[in-house]
Amino acid sequence: MAVDRRAARLSVLALVGLILFSLLGVRLWFLQTVKAEELEQTSVTARTRTVRVPPERGRIFDADGRVLADNKRILTVAVDWQQLRQKSDRDEIFRRISGWIGVPVEDMEARFQSGVDSPFLPMPLKVDVDEPTAIALLERIEDFPGLQIVEEWRRVYPYAPHAAHVVGYMGAITEDQLGSYIDRGYLMNERVGQFGVELSLEEILHGAWGYTTYEVDAANRPVRVVEEVPPIAGFDVQLTIDLDLQQYAEQAVETTLEARREVLAPNPEVVKPQTGVRERMDMTKPEEVPYKAPAGSAVIMNYETGEVLAMASYPTFDNRWFEAGLSSTKFQQIFPSTKPDGTPIDPDESILVNRAIQGRYNLGSAFKPFTAYAALSTGLMTAYEEFEDTGTYKLSPDSVDPRKCAAGLIRCEYKNATCGNGRPCVYGTVTIEDALAVSSDAFFYSVGENIMTRNVGLPVLQTQVELFQFGSDTGIELPFEFDGTVPDRELKKEYAERGVISVDEGRNYYVGDNVQLAIGQGLLSATPLQVANAYSALANGGSVLKPTIVKAIYHPGVPDGAPGFADLSQGKVFEERSEPEVIREIPMAPDVREPIVEGLTRVIYGPGVESDFYHKTTGEYLFADYPDDAIPLAGKTGTAQGSNNYPWNDSSVFSAFSTDPSQPYVVTAYLEKSGYGSQAAAPVVKCTFLVLSGLRPTDPVVPSPPLDLNSKVAAPSMEQRDQTCWLSRDGNGVRTNERSVD
């Protein structure tokens, strides 16, 4: 008999319905209670639109309040992303607006596809349109769906290119930086500092975004303002840079380099060890070779505070190029990374390098004061101990294997610089003071050997010079500072592994290495700022200071003063950096410091030493006309040997400091491939001290003319009206081939 199952089926359906209605009820309860607040927020979000409002970036001033970096309000034409999703809509909008803003449709499409712009802000089509164009577009807004005129800020540099390496420039966030900046609340299409103070003080200068939240209708049109939070401008920054001194230092470096390119270096005849034949050092070149003199830098510091008053680097650039909207082709023309044939450019020609903190230089004899300190402070010798300088120095048989010396496998004999007769200078009996005054290489070779052999296994020379911060960055508030290197066993091993030196050279640290270090050669490297900072420690009695480029930080809104200046007296200081930061105090007893300072003073004023004839000190000729009422000086020349020891590759260095504590200046100049220290770098330092003494004028600092967008150079030439201090024979002899030994 058939069983009627309809009742059972209805019961099952009723049960299923009951379960479904129960689940629906539970879901409704969950949404109305547990999720109510979240859903309300979602609903509000759907009815509102938030527009980010960019902050005004903090301004940058020099020590006197000149505005080095400012902001200009600009108008940007942009379009809502919602209107650009469909290709057909996008093409029509781009076509309509192209003629108005002068941007090809293809360029707008390429930007759309690039993904460089934030999806949370309208897509920018043209930056910095004029106000009449913006008004005309807004009057026809119905023809341009989603179009917006956005107010933004553009960075301006009123005194460019002065201090460009210090101030820096702005740029788009790179792919490598994106994650870090997004995590810090930045938008992906923001412009941020990419060099100099603009980069190192980015978070101080940036400020905080504001926003306006609108209620919108179904067509996404604003109905009312729901919330408005104004942006907070960035802090203003006052630098220690004095633009009058900065301009002079830049002019001095560039002018002297240009002059050195007209000077010829000898291509002397030497006996080639491979053949035993006497011939020119480089047979591919003539008897005289012009100095290349491609680059250089200068630093002016206050040795009591660590404040950097000027930091010049050449070649320089106009930082306004980075706000000019250059095409990639034009950018490559202005800042080439490769030659027309595709090969990398000569590093000597690199522009976007601050050589004052990134230059990796041998120091030559300018390093000798620190070798002298090591000798005196460790008790290796006293100030009165005498050394017989015969013009050459041979390593002791206790230090090297004489058989290897005889076979020419290692270098065991070292010579002084020549004295114009083709033979090494012979200085006779000298003390440490004499050796500094005339720059006796033989004396310091002996220090390099003896300080190592008497302290077997201990890097004594390295430890002593590292007290002056050689081998470590100075900590200045600028990016990309080079640490420098003080050679030792570990560094040689690292260089061998990297292929910088041979495997055999990297097996150990030898006496010959220490001999080279003692005269500032070998694998030693330092920046001009490190040199200036080390000389500052000698000048102030042993305080190694952290150099600073920042004088004060002001709350936003420092009012304008005279044209081109901010009125700092009306600004509110947020942080004043008036107290010098001491990195360390170096023990510097009078019997250690005084002989060094006296030797460096004699470099400037003489006297030299008498042996086979009278030997002037390395700066005596140059400073013969230095006025009595100028700042009194002590200093040291240096000539750093370059590639293959060719004379035309020698670089010039000079550092000097005031011996008057009431005028606590130190000035260091380094001119690459420019010859003797006394003939290139020293004139820059001498003339700068004449300016600091108030005895030579500087050109007035004036705002820059408009940037020439048709130019093909990174920066125009800087010429001072009165160049006699650098270019006359009395000033420095840079146009002559005067005999000099350092």
Structure characterization notes:
- With 742 residues, the chain is an alpha+beta fold.
- The chain contains 23 helices and 29 strands.
- The strands form ten sheets. Strands 2, 3, 4, 5, 10, 22 and 23 form a seven-stranded mixed sheet that branches. Strands 16-15-29-28-27 form a five-stranded antiparallel sheet, sandwiched between helices. Strands 1-8-9 form a three-stranded antiparallel sheet.
- A hairpin with a 5-residue loop joins strand 15 and strand 16.
- The longest helix has 27 residues, at 6-32.
- The termini are far apart.
- The model is unreliable at 729-739 (pLDDT under 50).
Structure summarized in a few sentences:
The protein has 742 residues and is an alpha+beta fold. It has 23 helices and 29 strands.
Main attributes of the structure:
seven-stranded mixed sheet; 31% helix; five-stranded antiparallel sheet; single chain; 23 helices; alpha+beta; 742 residues
List the uncertain runs.
729-739
Mean pLDDT value: 89
Q: Residue share in helices?
A: 25-40%
**Overall 3D shape:** elongated
Radius of gyration: 34 Å
Proportion of residues in extended strands:
15-25%
- Helix count equals 23
Count of beta strands: 29
Q: Provide the structure class.
A: alpha+beta
Distance between the termini: 126 Å
Which sheet architecture does the biggest sheet show? 7 strands, mixed
